[in-house]
Amino acid sequence: MNELQTPTNGDGQFPESRDILNAYSTASTVYDELRAPDGKVRPHWQSLVKQVQGYAVQDRIAVHDIAARKLAENGVTFVSQDSTDGSHAPWRLDLLPLLISQEEWNFLERGLEQRANLLNSILKDVYGEQKLLLNGQVPPALMFGNPQFLRPCQGLPVPEDSYLDLIAFDLARSPDGKWWVLNDRTQAPTGLGFALENRLITSHSMPEIFGSHHVRRLASFFESYNDNLLRLTRKDQPVIGVLSSGPTMETYFEHAYLARYLGYSVVEGGDLTVRDDRVYLKTVEGLKQVDLLLRRIDSEYCDPIELRTDSSTGVPSLVKAARSGNVIISNSLGSGVLENDGLNSFMPALCRHILGEDELLPDVATWWCGQPKERNYVLDRLDQLVIRSAFKPTSILNPSENSYFGPAMSSKEKDDLRQNIMKYGHNYVGQEVVSLSTAPAWTDAHTIKPAPLTLRVFAARTEDGYKLMPGGLARVSDTTHDTAPAMHRGDYSKDTWIISDSPVDTFSLLDKQRAEISVQRSGKDLPSRTADNLFWLGRYSERAEGAVRLYRSLLNRMAGNFGMAEEPDVHRLLINLLVSQKHLSKERAKKALAAGVENIEKELWKILFDAASPDGLSLILSNVQRTAEMVRERLSLDTWRIIKRLSALALRPTFRRGQELSDALTMLDDMVQQLSAFNGMVMENMTRGYGWRFLDMGRRAERAYRGVGLLSHLAVSGNPAHSDWLDILLDLADSTMTYRTRYKDTPMTPLVLDLLLSDDSNPRSAIYQFAALADHIDALPDPSETQGLTSTQKLTVGLRTPLMLADVDELSMINAKTGKRDALEALLTQLHDGLEALSDSVGRMYFIHAETQHLSGPRWSEAGL
């Protein structure tokens, strides 16, 4: 895209012939971020508008396409709060950023840093001396009546009184342009990772615009935040985990994203254990003491013993470990008590009392109904106020279901609400209806329109006090309503640019002195659950490749590409292969064979394109993606994109049966290429740590398991002169070219068996897989500290030895009585049983703290989740 310039008329106006702001009509009752009351474009917006103005229609379409592609490739999603199956909703990004001038930002910095210090002081007192409660400056009912006040957390030690290491503030403008604080987010503030991703995508989609503005960078904020967490641990190499409840959590993308960006591990409750009042991470090397947990789940769910007994996501005795001072939890347990709208009306007085200063940024006018005078005021004005639950905070991704918009309520709703307020007044607040400012939204390639705006900004604790991230996560509504309660699911997010008055630092991270850097070349703190999931990611990806190759082979033969379209024996053979590989039930296979070739094609179409098929391609690929999501922080961005593209291939519209066979073959060819690309990324880009070893072990185990199964089905019985079966076997093992290059003859049973079983130079042979497995297992730690060979090592020796001693001529001989190759069958049975024993042994040795191993995969796949 070329640099585009369009001159203004010198007064903030633009030529009408190309003015995309012609339809930008603002309301006089609200503040507009772009246009002043006189209709002119505000000074700090003029350069941006001029450049966007210069885009031709095709350029506008191009930048939107770039952003959409990046969002899809990066897998930027969140799980909807009302989702019953953990399905992910796409992240929606408006490319036109919100601009804030440096002068205005300086004021916000002062006001929000003041508020951060105030909130930290209040929390320290609430869980400490409680002087504010004793003196009546905070009504006791406002704290003790809040379910988020956790009594077991009273008096927990907090290093340097840093109760709140990260705080988020939701802001809005009043009609006169002044900023108001809508909400404080102190529990486990979300949005930081999404804001960073918005910045990366926006700057990548419009690099010439971003580069021409003095936009303050975000990297220094993350560096300061990270440095402070590391400093609090007082260790050179601390173990830090991002405590998450897993991929079904609405903001799991952010958990994995931040963990990867900051260099931490995503951990779940099952990855941790408390012993002797210390928190340990269960790793493949044994237990590793955890120094700090970056908590991304609500406090009450963190400990099923002392906090919430029905929690399945917490760590038993975590509170006890924190009470002993052996682990730092950030933000501190119980910090959700400040997400309390009833506290808003007390903030001005608290600011003067604690900090000796007037509050710089006001709260939305709030009346807590736990006091008679305020309750009567709210009851008299139900038609004019927003009524909210005092103790149930909203989410930035999913709006509150606990708000009642007075002007829109029916008479019955008002009467019911009135009764509840009179009975349970302390649970409610009344708030002034906030008219949101509007900002330009460029949600498609053609128009810019004003849309209601809210802004979330973040403050992090540093050694020098709180520091504000120079940017934020803005949200614009896709409705025309301009009141805060009208914000709803489906809104767009925006990047926020702080326009500096001078050139900004362009480094991606702050410089560090060489003395501070410690070279590290291995990541040994691999959680057992992560190792388990990487192992199964390897198995599932290999299983997907085997299935795709089998489908492609069957389609090719049905299309007559190998001259066998009318041979029923071949059809029967391949259909039975589908059954043996668990891609088709015996009942469906029997019906398909009885009905002829046309019905075989119909069954194959169901396997390929019916998402509801219980044993189809969609399920196989969903297992790959879901397992990859569990270890997303361990995968490179390019690797993740390959997985997303692979899944997207299966979502193509269903092909018409009997008319587009070539398109189906093209799709399967594309899938083979994507799976090969995935394997290439794993082999070429992953560091040779434990994570890579477990992933490759899963792949090797599955390839060996599948190869043994194919040989059992195709080679144990049958006429050795029937080359079609051997051709199919070589095709499915991707070894046809190797055989032809080496022997230049039709396939013969002894030579095929040697190539696929005992040839250690063939990366598709069984012995090659067992040798690779042995190398990995030899490099892994031995938690049991066994003298000599471990049980797992002995199993790999037992798998390789019979292949090294095998006589392929003897294996090829058919017993005249049984009609089978008995020696081959015995060998394959031995290998099959050995592989199952090896998988179980790896599970016992390294995944003992994770979920029980099953041949079909982790427990969630068994449940069909």
Summarize the structure.
With 865 residues, the protein is an alpha+beta fold. The protein has 29 helices and 21 strands.
Write the layout of secondary structure elements.
Layout: H1 43-53, H2 57-74, E1 77-79, E2 88-90, E3 93-101, H3 102-126, H4 131-134, H5 140-144, E4 166-173, E5 179-185, H6 192-205, H7 207-212, H8 219-233, E6 240-243, H9 252-262, E7 265-267, E8 272-275, E9 278-283, E10 286-289, E11 292-295, H10 318-323, E12 328-330, H11 347-355, E13 366-368, H12 372-380, E14 385-389, E15 403-405, H13 411-423, E16 428-432, E17 438-441, E18 449-462, E19 465-468, E20 473-476, E21 492-499, H14 528-558, H15 568-580, H16 586-595, H17 597-609, H18 617-630, H19 637-649, H20 661-685, H21 690-714, H22 723-732, H23 736-743, H24 749-758, H25 766-779, H26 791-804, H27 808-812, H28 822-846, H29 859-862
Parallel strand pairs: 3-21, 6-7, 6-11, 11-12
Antiparallel strand pairs: 1-2, 4-5, 4-18, 8-9, 9-10, 13-16, 14-15, 14-16, 17-18, 18-19, 18-20, 20-21
Outline the structure in words.
With 865 residues, the protein is of the alpha+beta class. 44% of the residues lie in helices and 12% in strands. Helix 14 (528-558) packs antiparallel against helix 18 (617-630) and helix 14 runs parallel beside helix 21. It is elongated and about 100 Å long. The model is unreliable at 1-10, 81-86, 395-400, 484-488, 509-522, 654-659 and 849-865 (pLDDT under 50).
Give the termini distance in whole angstroms: 44 Å
Largest sheet: 8 strands, mixed
Strand content: 5-15%
Structural class: alpha+beta
Shape type: elongated
Low-pLDDT parts are 1-10, 81-86, 395-400, 484-488, 509-522, 654-659, 849-865
Mean pLDDT: 84
β-strand number: 21
The helical percent reads 40-55%
- What's the total helix number? 29
Integer-rounded radius of gyration: 32 Å
